Amino acid sequence: MTDEHFMRQALREARLAEEKGEVPIGAVVVMNDQIIGRGHNQVEMLNDCTAHAEMIALTSAFNYLGAKYLMEATLYVTLEPCVMCAGALYWSKIGRIVYAAADEKNGYRRVTEGKSPFHPKTKVEYGLLGEESLGMVKAFFQRRRK
Hints:
alpha/beta, tRNA_aden_deaminase, tRNA-specific adenosine deaminase, APOBEC/CMP_deaminase_Zn-bd, EC 3.5.4.33
């Protein structure tokens, strides 16, 4: 399995969010080439500002493993995590984070001034399928503004 395969699974989750009227962001947690957690934005549906794709995918993975740490796992998410999600990822000690597109307005990098908010051993990569991911988000907001 490749990073692209798993990012496409995260994009599939983002499409589920969009179908429900949510901002199209999706995430999957992978360990040993197996998806152990999935999530997509459910903020509107749950009336919960913390119901971000990453948070839901993390909770799903914790429940699957029966553990609170994900040192051997990778999170694939379609948009740069916000500060709240970055904090949860820090505490999870996740091994790797791959996000598709930067979020200039609400991403963690906007407020961390170049310092990583993640666990020191967490590896972070971005840009994989970034244009496709960002295109979904932009199209969603363009439709809502009409």
